[in-house]
Amino acid sequence: MERILYADDDYDVQKYIEDILSKEGYSVIIAKDGAEALGLIKAQKPDLAILDYFMPGLNGIEVCQALRKDEGTKDIPILMVTAYPSEKENSLSAGATDFINKPIDKTDLLLRIRSVLKVREIKNELQRMIAYLAELEKGNKIGGA
Fold first, then answer.
1. Would 45 be classed as within a structural domain?
2. SS3 of 119, please?
3. Among 37, 45, 71, 110, which one is most buried in terms of CB atoms within 10 A?
4. CATH code, domain carrying 59
5. Domain carrying residue 71
6. How many domains does the chain divide into?
């Protein structure tokens, strides 16, 4: 079961998203602000983080930047959510994988999640293949030398 962290300071939106995601079979982790999100992401390493752009304390951009700078979290896909489409460029520049407008459309949310998680799966498989090929090449150099 894939784990998704959703961070938003609006309780009603938290519950709406948690309901959608849990019904789709995802394990959902909820954070009420950026600082909590950052701590939970570092501790639990979700498969995806969805961050509200505007939150008290650390905002979504600051959390995104911190995650990208940390070796342990830099590869976690991040979807940024905001009611301000003009913030899309800032979100992507900060390292967000994708962007979702509020109000959140259920179909759009689920399609973007599936897409981002599929890309992550392909990337992970590619990294495993590269490591495997490197081991084969290393073995050939040792055995052929």
1. yes
2. helix
3. 37
4. 3.40.50.2300
5. 3-117
6. 1
